[in-house]
Design goal:
single chain, 5 strands, five-stranded mixed β-sheet, 4 helices, alpha+beta, about 30% helix
Length: about 170
């Protein structure tokens, strides 16, 4: 476990690392007209206004590829990325490509995609990631993800959480 003051950069990095934010009070909240959800939470009903969007969870699949790199180095880098970005679910890798799956919280698809597209580049130096390019991005909401799984045509069953070879 790294010991440092909150917000301190990891040793050897000169730039800020990408971070996720905690779920806000409005995360995935739906309040019925009678305020039942709010009463269960022990608070007053909170009416959402059009100018205050609700945060949602988005399932991200990021695919990267490039020139071959030693498998040992790719695995170590992906393990470091998982340590730096604790919401990573699973990473699969080969010597010339990798796929990363994780959950991201964002207001909408555009915000989730923007964060996902910065993930690889912002962690390239700190995690020692190969200089690969992003070649694919899928961003789907939680409901769509669970619907796909229930219907049996979702993403291939993920290996246990962690970093695994193809």
């Amino acid at each position: 476990m790294r010991r440092a003051r909150p917000g301190a950069l990891p040793r050897g990095t000169a730039e800020r690392a990408l971070t996720s934010v905690e779920a806000g009070a409005d995360f995935d909240e739906t309040v019925s007209d009678d305020g039942a959800a709010a009463r269960q939470a022990g608070s007053q009903p909170d009416r959402h206004t059009p100018d205050r969007p609700v945060s949602k969870l988005w399932h991200i699949t990021l695919s990267v590829s490039g020139q071959e790199a030693p498998l040992k180095d790719v695995r170590r880098a992906l393990e470091q990325l998982a340590h730096d970005h604790p919401f990573l679910l699973t990473s699969r890798y080969a010597s010339d490509h990798a796929e990363i799956r994780y959950w991201e919280e964002a207001r909408d698809l555009h915000d989730a995609a923007a964060v996902a597209l910065r993930l690889w580049g912002e962690h390239r130096q700190s995690a020692g990631l190969p200089p690969w390019e992003i070649v694919g991005l899928e961003v789907i909401d939680r409901e769509t993800y669970h619907l796909r799984i229930a219907e049996g045509y979702g993403p291939p069953p993920a290996a246990p959480v962690g970093v695994h070879p193809y």
